[in-house]
Fold each of these.
Amino acid sequence: MPISLATFNAYNLQSPGAPMHRKPRGGFTSWTADEYEKKIRWTAAMIERVDTDVIGFQEAWSVAALEDAFARAGRDIGRTYHLVARDGSPGRPQVALAARRSRFDVKAAAWTEQVPAHFRMRHGRVDDPGDPDAVDVRISSLSRPPLAVRLRLKDGPYKGSELAVWVAHLKSKRPLDPDRRHYPTPRGQPNPWKPYREAIGSALSTVRRAAEATALRMMLTDAMLAEPALPTVLLGDLNDATLSVTTTLVSGEPPYKLWSRSTAGGRGARTQIGLYTAETLQQYRSQRDVYYTHVHANRLESLDHVLVSRHFYDHSLDRQWSFRELKVWNDHLHDANRSGKTAAQWPGDHAIVGAWFDDNPAPRAPGMAALPAAGETP
């Protein structure tokens, strides 16, 4: 029986009238009752279309709104899906997870607010002009705390075994606003930072996303080394492309098997802690694939990802599932009315990505030679 996984940025799914993002001139954005009704109707329709066993949500502000969307889709929480979610405070959207009750029990779930205690991004001395490569980046908390859920399978050949599912949402590319504390303007003088505002803000966002990606990779590495036999999935809006620095930080760049004698997928260190992207698995299957999940300034970008451990990789010695197909629901990104910024005009600004895997354990051939414990040739 196949297992199906999806990631769904719900574009500020919040109850009507409840606060979301801070406005430049004070106060917070919110949905009207009419906007909320249209948003719930569209979200429910997409949940019904996607219909995967597991869905990871980003920008899920309200447990009640998620429950409303599932109920409208005819999938009442409590009867058809487990829902692991929490309400977000103003300015702090949350990630959430839904898992089909007929297939899974939820054994544990936790959001991680703080970076790991051993997190460091430092090199050299930044106050030494003779050290041109010096770096010192410090963060203590995560802007969108990732969610880790432990699921137990209730059917199929792996009944009783467990699966770790992470849901993540990294910092967006939207420029941060340089604040006056670090970029002061002399009283009565023009703002000297104005010509550089966009560049500085974009750089700050990039550094923040890289730091959060590093923290997430450290958490994944620790968890996967602690339980190497545990299949692991990450569903997320990583806000950058598959081969970007930040996304490859999260994936760990495991090797792909490209020819028969390659040992990729064996027992090497990168295979043990790496996550394979379903986008790449699909590209190896298809002669041509156009994959994009977000449109900005007429640029088609792939920001939303399904990443899986070696237990889902066709050529892994530890394979339990094999890749069947990937689907991307992105037609709404080209709707003629998407120039608006309200739920009534633009119900979603990201595509939904789903991936399907078949039960298909790797064969254990008699006399198979053991691969080296570390180091592998892709």
Amino acid sequence: MSLLISPTELSDLLHSDRPPVVLDVRWALDLPDGRVDYRQGHLPGAVYVDLDTELAAAPAAELGRHPLPDVETLTTAARRWGIDDGDTVVVYDGASNQSAARAWWLLRWAGLADVRILDGALPAWRAAGLPLSTDEVTPTPGQVTLQTGSLGVLDVDEVAGFPASGVLLDARASERFTGEVEPIDPKAGHIPGAVSAPNAGSLRPDGTFESPATLRARFAELGVAEGVPVAAYCGSGVTAAHLVAALSLAGFDARLYPGSFSQWSGLDRPVAVGA
């Protein structure tokens, strides 16, 4: 089943007998509430998703800034979005799907089979000349049943030893990996043994994903290979989901470290600096 969907493919589906549930997941570290942007224009029928409250549990130093929500909380949110069992779900955000990938990963982790990312996000929809809406969308509540565990995760103790047996990829910008800057977490640097793999390297200039062949070549240069375990982390487990998606497009099944560097540094675990 395809992970990505193009704007024209989505537009056609929206006019079908059973249109997909579309989720608007606009969020940024410096602007976590995307409702203002959503109200200024969103895909027709798209439901706004609050990443901080619906796609994460409350932050805590011992868990990280965006711990995974429990299945009851996620189920309540998914039903509010109008999702029923068997539905196709499409997620997007306002830029390059860094936050939308969190919704993709969570719903796949919770057992939904057909969850897709709008390739190129909102800019691609606009570039295709497709319409936007300013309507506030309140869907009929769904009855979806979720059960977590369909995708692999690592906890903080498992990730400590992971680089010895696999490849641990860091999705953050390179200057955060090296420790040159750290805007929010208690320490600067990276998990010892991790490899820098900024999400920007998975995207073309227009914000769409690189081809599977290009992605596979990129990850091969970083040490990813058949039969070698691979996992991804970031600052708080949000944008690492984007890296997991890119790895999936390249043909690799990667695990996610949900606590990511915010949990690791919050627990005062050792960090490395430099390239």
Amino acid sequence: MKLYEHTAKEIFKKFDIPIPKSILALDVNSAVDAAKQMGDAVLKAQVLTGGRGKAGGIAVVKSTTEAKQNAQRILAMEIKGFPVKKLLVEEYRQPLKEMYLGITIDRQAKCPVIMASSSGGIDIEEVARNSPEKIMKIHIHPLAGLQDHQARTIANSLDRNKSREMIDIIRKLYRLFIENDCQLVEINPLAETESGIIALDGKMIIDDNAMFRHALKEEVSDSLEEVAKKNGMSYVGLDGDIGCIVNGAGLAMATLDMVTQYGGRPANFMDVRAGASAEQVKAALSIVSSNVNVKAIIFNIFGGMTKCDEAARGIIEKIPELKKPLIVRLSGTNEKEGRAMLEKHGIHMATSTEEAAKGVVELGNLN
């Protein structure tokens, strides 16, 4: 389960990790009132996805007029298909230096790994892609826990002059990670300000299997992952513009790889799973097409338990509402029937995953 920033920071506060003063606002008037209390303030869209800053979902405001204008603008936005329904209004803290600190699970090593970089902020993905040597990674033994020398090494990599403050935050963040059954917790940026080191942003993902220990059900109200789960499917949002709907995790990963090979960038992973009904297919198309960044959709079904004609029925029922170009590959049980149904409606058809992947990238480039 992904947590909103405001909830993550409430948990940070319980573990004495320094955060800015903030107020959650659900409408324009409450956002303006909160900004008045802060002086210079930051309005931050609360959505369960990344990329808010680049999308315009974060604004520094210095007056009531600026607060009102930006609150109206941000609350009217959708970011990667997520409507903005609330704002976190924070006191503005000028960062003198931005760093990154995160903890996740290394599934190959089967243990937590702490990641840190002295280059944080909105371009951390670029740092990871182009300068991976700038990101330090230290694995933590799950039984021994975080050792003092490991905390010192990480702290010194971030800022040797602020080592004591850094060590304290690193220890607290690791305890938070363990006690909250996290799959991921990160601070980006972890900022040096005139008043000390502070977490300017916070992200947390809690293991779904541990949710019985945490009363946080309200966090998933607008999560596409949760909508997919309720419909018996798996969905993971990505940063591309090619929507992908496939049955079977293996075929789904192969489809994503093939789309990437032909120069496309997948917008999501979606596995509609075996035996998908027409209603599930319609739901899958609704979920994937709700992402405003999606330019085209690939629908790749290998029919075993999933019947191709049943999948085709769901596609045909959804097509009148679908605003995105779609290419379909069907293979397996009732393939001929399914293909015949779709061809009557003029839907782009492919005979292989390779052909479908190449075709959907071409459609995306045209859209």
